[in-house]
Design a protein that fits this description.
single chain, alpha+beta, Beta-Lactamase, Heat Shock Protein 90, five-stranded mixed sheet, four-stranded antiparallel sheet, 11 strands, rod-shaped, phosphorelay sensor kinase activity, transmembrane helix, HisK_dim/P_sf, histidine kinase, EC 2.7.13.3
Length: about 475
Amino acid sequence: MKLARKITIALTLLAIAVMTVLETLEVRRELERSAIDMQHDHRLLGHTLAGSIARAWQEEGEAEALTLLDQANRFQAQVYLRWVWLDGAQGHSAPALPASLLRTLRGGQDGSMVDDTSAGAGVLRSYTPVFINTHLGAIEISESLSEEHQHVRNTVQNAAIATCAIAVAFLLAAMAMGRRLVGRPVNQLVELAHRIGEGRLEERVHLRQNDELQTLATAMNRMAELLLTAREKIALETAAHLATLEHLRHADRLTTVGKLASGVAHEMGTPLNVVLGRSKMISSGEVVGDEVTECAQIISQQALHMTRIIRQLLDFARRRAPRRAPENIAQLVTHTLTLLRPLATKRGATLVSEVPDSLILEVDSGQLQQVLTNLVMNGIHAMKRPGTLRVRAGPTRAAPPTETGGQETEWIRLDVEDEGEGIRPEDLPHIFDPFFTTKDVGEGTGLGLSVSHGLVQDHGGWIAVRSEPGRGSCFSVYLPPGGP
């Protein structure tokens, strides 16, 4: 139930209760005034007749006195008058009155009682004591309470109708005012809160009233302004952070290119010597006829081979905008190992790919190649003696690390396993920290694993490592099977 409706109902019930109490008190006061008026009228009538009755009784006898009462009864029908003896004189018995009333009357004071034994609504009986010689009598004035009870019923009915009418009017007025002063402004504030929750921070609300709701609206408008300013600031800071991160990753790629330069130069030495030798044979006339054509074909093949090597190096070093697309992982691994094979050969390492040809992942090929390059280069550097570095891939079921969180599910795992010297246990917790390296001076910047860790996290995965000193290390890259 809405707040305005609750307030309206509560105020209406309170108003009904107050009006009911007030009307009840008013009815009681009206009844008390009516009873007092009746008793006063009885007392006035009793004392008016008492003098005449007493004088007629003494001067003309009992019959004449009682005749006066009969004449009085004929002229009005609302009350009934009769003479009663209070002390049982003249052989008459005293009326059955309460003892307290009898004591009051015998003391010479007026008294009254309500006779509930009579039919109908009861009878009010008032007594005015009169002394006849030495005997005590009284004029009894009886009046039916039917009219009074009817008056009470009419008063209660009128009060109930008035209370209902006022309650309905108050309810309608309260509903209208509640909707105008509370319901409508609250709805506007709720809509503003929903729009802010949806990210529409440019929205505002303006209330044409001067109360607490207007203060709340001002506060919410101010909150939206602050959130908008904070969002713009965060957007700028995020853009700067991403630009810095991209510069850092590109710097890492250029560092890798520099390390590959010597291997590439060595790789290009053989085809260059072939080109040089064949060209000299052609220019010196050492070969003639079909041999010239064969030498030209060999020169062309070696030139294409050198172009392919340089193209691979340039592709790796080129700055590209991040873009994820379905990628054949086997081909990506093959290209990476081809690029690094001169460096591996120089160190006596053999690179082997055991990745199935059908494995397709939605990744950024440049970023994943940078990750593989860093891991393979680290493996090559760790192998101080001839050995084999293997790259494997396949589906597995695993739970993300505690700092990432999540339930156990299906992943694609890429393993880069070397036969190097391994990592000391005390160094394992720090290998992904920026600028942490265990390599010799000049061999590493300490950014490769840190950058790779960030790139894999951007893909929704993580890197795990297990290592045994003296037997090698295995870095495992976990990636979502359907892409991030």
